[in-house]
Specification:
five-stranded mixed barrel, OB fold (Dihydrolipoamide Acetyltransferase, E2P)
Length: 102
């Protein structure tokens, strides 16, 4: 019975460690995959030096001020930083908020 309890405790610890909720990073846009009407994915170089790829979550078509997500191309050209709030879903960084960095 104690092996069963230990096994269940291990599973609970692993699951709890994987459910971290939303995360936030700031960085510069390295690339945008999309066209004039939609963004399929984008890459970011964070202030910590990490390179991350994001896909927009469902319903994320614009910045909070209403500017279309295709505005990321301008950030790519100018190097102006953005802030991304995201969650990891099935191993994919899914952007839930994309905004100009303060």
């Amino acid at each position: 019975m104690s092996r069963l309890v230990a096994g269940i405790a291990t599973v609970v610890i692993v699951v709890a460690g994987c459910s971290g909720g939303d995360q936030r990073v700031t960085g510069i846009v390295l690339g945008v995959d999309g066209d004039l009407t939609a963004v399929r994915s984008f890459q970011l170089l964070t202030t910590d030096g990490d390179r991350l790829e994001f896909v927009p979550g469902s319903g994320v078509h614009a910045f909070p001020d209403g500017t279309p997500l295709t505005h990321l191309s301008e950030h790519l050209q100018t190097g102006t930083p953005i802030r991304v709030t995201y969650r990891v879903e099935d191993g994919v960084n899914t952007a839930v908020i994309v905004e100009d960095a303060p």
